[in-house]
Specification:
Blueprint lengths: L2 H5 L3 E2 L5 E6 L4 E2 L2 E2 L1 H18 L9 E9 L6 E12 L4 E10 L5 E12 L22 E2 L5 H4 L8 E5 L16 E8 L7 H7 L18 E8 L8 E6 L3 E2 L2 E9 L5 E10 L8
Antiparallel strand pairs: 1-2, 2-6, 3-4, 5-8, 5-12, 6-7, 7-8, 9-10, 10-11, 11-13, 12-16, 13-15, 14-15, 15-16
Helix pairs in contact: 2-4
Length: 282
């Protein structure tokens, strides 16, 4: 079993709407479990619920859209995913997911709430799609292992990935951010597991924050995330781009796009992040 499959593994209990798992410290970024892993775990729970629901007469196996709100930072330890099937249709089936953990006071703490839809992303006709950007091949890019040690010490999640950043967007790692608000890179799981449609949701939130290329190195927690999966990815490297054009009021948007090894656009997202700006004169 791959590290990713083990990290998103769920157990059922007496309640068919609930599944249980454990978040591991190895998937943390900063002081929280990576939000992408949290989302893919929730999607796995909804997919399992749909597969066992008698009203799901058309099997839907691919997550197509997810809208997630992050209430509090997920922490290493046990968690519970509660799922509710909202509608089963011919093309899409939709449900709600919530993730809770037990707080220090013994009460449940909601970590994330999301609505997602599943479909079947096979035999798709594509009339128009964005083309992947020109980038050096992975072997000519900057490995995440070359990031500053103090950053890597708080980014154990990156040890689960083989991430290679386009040198033109990796200046932040050398203390020379480009200030263009763009980051690009190649991505795959380090243990060799090939990507699938559920894993793409994690990949959309896997690169370092694009805020780093704006010279903002503080924590940028995701407040809301909307992701779309467009097709099943081919095996091999994923090509990921991030960009941000708007920063203000302590928030910024981050847009992501992913192409597979065949150049197909397979996923895209927009998320709203919190940003802590340095104090004037600080």
């Amino acid at each position: 079993m791959s590290e990713y499959d083990d990290a998103t593994r769920l157990e059922t209990g007496d309640d068919p709407t609930q599944r249980h798992g454990t978040f591991h410290e190895e998937w943390m970024i900063g002081n929280a479990v990576n939000g992408g892993l949290v989302m893919t775990t929730a999607l796995r729970a909804l997919g399992e619920h749909l597969a066992s629901d008698p009203t799901e007469t058309t099997e839907h196996v691919d997550p197509v859209v997810l809208s997630a709100y992050f209430m509090t930072a997920s922490q290493p330890g046990p968690f519970t995913v509660t799922t509710e099937v909202m509608r089963c249709g011919r093309k899409l089936s939709t449900g709600q997911m919530t993730i809770h953990q037990t707080g220090d006071d013994g009460r449940p703490v909601e970590r994330m709430r999301a609505i997602g839809s599943f479909g079947n992303l096979t035999d798709l006709d594509v009339q128009r799609q964005a083309s992947p950007p020109e980038m050096p091949p992975p072997e000519q890019c900057v490995s995440a292992e070359q990031a500053p040690p103090d950053f890597l010490a708080n980014a154990k999640f990156l040890e689960r990935l083989d991430l290679r950043l386009d040198p033109s967007t990796a200046g932040w790692a050398l203390g020379k951010p480009s200030m263009r608000g763009v980051m690009r890179g190649w991505l795959r799981l380090r243990d060799g597991r090939e990507p699938d449609t559920t894993m793409l949701m994690m990949a959309l939130d896997a690169l370092p924050p694009v805020a780093f290329e704006l010279g903002l190195f503080g924590w940028t927690p995701t407040l809301e995330f909307t992701g779309h999966v467009r097709r099943r990815p081919e095996p091999g490297w994923l090509q990921v781009t991030l960009g941000s054009d708007t920063l203000g009021g302590g928030m910024m948007e981050e847009d992501a796009m992913i192409w597979d090894s065949a150049g197909n656009l397979v996923a895209q997202s927009r998320q709203l992040c919190g940003v802590r700006l340095p104090k004037a004169g600080g």
